[in-house]
Structure formats: C-alpha cells, structure tokens
Amino acid sequence: MKPKLLFPIVSLICFTVLSCGQKNTKNEIDTETYAKLLKTGNHISSQAQASLLAHVSKAMKQGGSLYAVEFCNLQASSIADSLSNRFNCTISRVSEKNRNPQNELKTETDKQLWAWANQQNDPIKDTLVVTKSQAIYYKPIRTGMAACLQCHGPVETIQPETYQKLQTLYPNDKATGYGLNELRGLWRIELHYKN
User: In angstroms, rounded to a whole number, what is the distance separating the alpha carbons of residues 139 and 53?
Assistant: First the structure.
C-alpha cells in the first residue's frame, strides 16, 4: 500500500475508534465503554507480556538461548491460550517479521496498523479498533532487553547452535535482525463486548 493512501485509511479507523461518545448506527461506542476496553486491553497485554518474559527469562537461566528457543516453540502458544481462557478473550501476537507462521498479520486492519506503526517517528501507542461484536486492542512489542537480541538480533550475533535451532524449528523465520527497542510485533487482544 502506498503511504499516500494509508493516511486516509488509518484516519478512518481512528475516527471509528475515537468517536467521542456519540453513538449512531455504525460501530461507535460511548467514551466510557471505550476507556474501559482500552484499560482492559492494556491490563491483559501487560499480563501476557510479563508472563511470557518471566517464562522466557527462566528458560534462559536454565539453559541459555538454545533452551529458550525450544521452550518458546513448545510453550509460548499455550501460555497465550491459558491467559486467553483466564481473561475470556483471544490473545495473539502479530508481526510482518514473524517467527511462528501463526503470528503473521491476519487481517487488513493488522496490516494497516503495522504499516502505520512502522512509519511513525514517535513510538506507537496502544490502539483500539471497534466492530459490532468485538473490540481489538493492539499494543506494540519492542525488543526491550539485550536478552531479546540473543534470538532476535542480527544473525551474526546469534550463537550458531541457537541460530541452527531457529532454522530447524522455524524454517521461514523472519524475526531476526533487530536492534534494541525496535518494534518487533503487536499484541492483538480480541475483547468481546455488547454494543
């Protein structure tokens, strides 16, 4: 999509989302509901991030980056599923440079928000997109710690055995080459609500 066309599309999404409390026959929600959904999405994504980081940190301490790659391959999805059940929502991570094929950008909205996030000079904030039956909360995932780069950094800096394991488990891996604090993905939290 050309950048000139992206601004009107993102503006339309933002207009739908930020309707300032005026309800009509489209997808707008009142300000109070919007604020509550935004707060809920932030809480859930923070819990998911903390849980995943705690588990990966433990795996790193237990067996280094090689063990952490194997752990993530086997456990990351079940951690997200467990939290999804706990919070009665659907938690996923999406990225244009995904490692797990299940984490690819799924919808046009995913793709538009990813493109928008990548052309911002300021760090992207959390975003809420509303439809008739659900609200989808997005929050950026950044490579916030040096430990992240042991599996997501430039290929030449990843330990050879870890890189080999990545290639074995994820033959189409696109999630390397990052520096610190770079946008690596988006939390995508599908929240159900009654309009």
Answer: 16
Proportion of the chain above pLDDT 90, given as a percent: 71
Q: Residue 162 falls within a domain, yes or no? A: yes
Decide if 109 contacts 17 (C-beta within 8 A): no
Residue scoring higher pLDDT (48 or 16)? 48
Q: Are 37 and 46 in contact (CB under 8 A)?
A: no
Residue 121 pLDDT:
65
Range of the domain at 35: 28-192
Tell me whether residue 8 is in a domain. no
Residue 185: φ, ψ to 5°:
-175, -170
8-state DSSP, 55: H
Q: How many domains does the chain have?
A: 1
Q: Is the torsion defined by CA of 56, 100, 39, 117 positive or negative?
A: positive
Q: Retrieve residue 69's tokens.
A: 């790659």
Query: Which three-class secondary structure state does DSSP give residue 23?
Result: coil
Residue 52 lies in a domain: yes
HSE, side-chain direction, 13 A CA sphere, residue 31:
3
Place of tokens 């309707």: 19
Write out the two tokens for 193: 């609500």
- Is residue 7 in a domain? no
pTM, entire model: 0.82
